[in-house]
Write a structure and sequence with these properties.
The complex is a heterodimer of chains A (about 110) and B (about 110).
Chain A (H helix, E strand, L loop, with lengths): L3 E4 L2 E4 L5 E7 L6 E7 L5 E8 L5 E2 L8 E7 L2 E6 L8 E9 L2 E4 L3 E5 L1
Parallel strand pairs in A: 2-11
Antiparallel strand pairs in A: 1-3, 3-8, 4-5, 4-9, 5-6, 7-8, 9-10, 9-11
Chain B lengths: L4 E3 L2 E5 L4 E6 L6 E7 L5 E8 L4 E4 L2 E6 L4 E6 L8 E8 L7 E2 L3 E6 L1
Parallel strand pairs in B: 2-11
Antiparallel strand pairs in B: 1-3, 3-8, 4-5, 4-9, 6-7, 7-8, 9-10, 9-11
The chains are: A mainly beta (about 110), B mainly beta (about 110).
């Protein structure tokens, strides 16, 4: 099946700094990438949808200026958590739809200290 | 927003027993999928059932779908300790729309 490579898998950063998470589609072109966030012992919540060559669409309650999404090419989508705070600590995971299926990255565990 | 509601939220069984998890959803769907997630890790796709299917099997997994009741069940037969994980159902409205996840069931299989 299609492969989505997500990096980094784990990152610890200081409050106030920014962190970039990358998702690459390795053997297919992803015109759309979904970004999810998961807090401990909770489910995955959709944050935003990125589309290659256009602005991302954000779910209600997700700050677009804080979670910057760029989908500059058909194989790369990035999520940048700007001015990170401890409450941003979470598991972030990307997903690309292919036909009826969805292929997920491995996820990024972000810890803000 | 979340679509699916799984029950139970947590399930603890002995190795060898069967585990049944249920999922209900609210809107019409194109397909429903089940995923497994080991603690702190990514998602593993288990099985997809389309809206025009009623039952599907894959190894020790059996999934049913009742679109009239907007519900699905996942049965894991002859469970193993390695099946310990969280299980999520996820629905998709149509081709390029995002998956909407249920709250999940935390399954513990005790050896």
């Amino acid at each position: 099946g299609a492969v989505v490579s997500q990096h980094p898998s784990r990152v610890i950063c200081k409050s106030g700094t920014s962190v970039k998470i990358e998702c690459r589609s390795l053997d297919f072109q992803a015109t759309t990438m979904f970004w999810y966030r998961q807090f401990p012992k909770q489910s995955l919540m959709l944050m935003a949808t990125s589309n290659e060559g256009s602005k991302a669409t954000y779910e209600q309650g997700v700050e677009k200026d804080k979670f910057l999404i760029n989908h500059a090419s058909l194989t790369l989508s990035t999520l940048t958590v700007t001015s990170a705070h401890p409450e941003d600590s979470s598991f972030y995971i990307c997903s690309a739809p292919v036909d009826t299926e969805a292929f997920f990255g491995q996820g990024t565990r972000l810890t803000v200290v | 927003s979340q679509q699916g509601e799984e029950d139970p939220q947590a399930l603890s069984i002995q190795e060898g027993e069967n585990a049944t998890m249920n999922c209900s959803y609210k809107t019409s769907i194109n397909n429903l999928q089940w995923y497994r997630q080991n603690s702190g890790r990514g998602l593993v796709h288990l099985i997809l059932i389309r809206s025009n299917e009623r039952e599907k099997h894959s190894g020790r997994l059996r999934v049913t779908l009742d679109t009239s009741k907007k519900s699905s069940s996942l049965l894991i037969t002859a469970s193993r300790a390695a099946d310990t994980a969280s299980y999520f159902c996820a629905t998709r409205f149509s081709g390029n729309t995002p998956l909407v996840f249920g709250k999940g069931t935390r399954l513990s299989v005790i050896a």
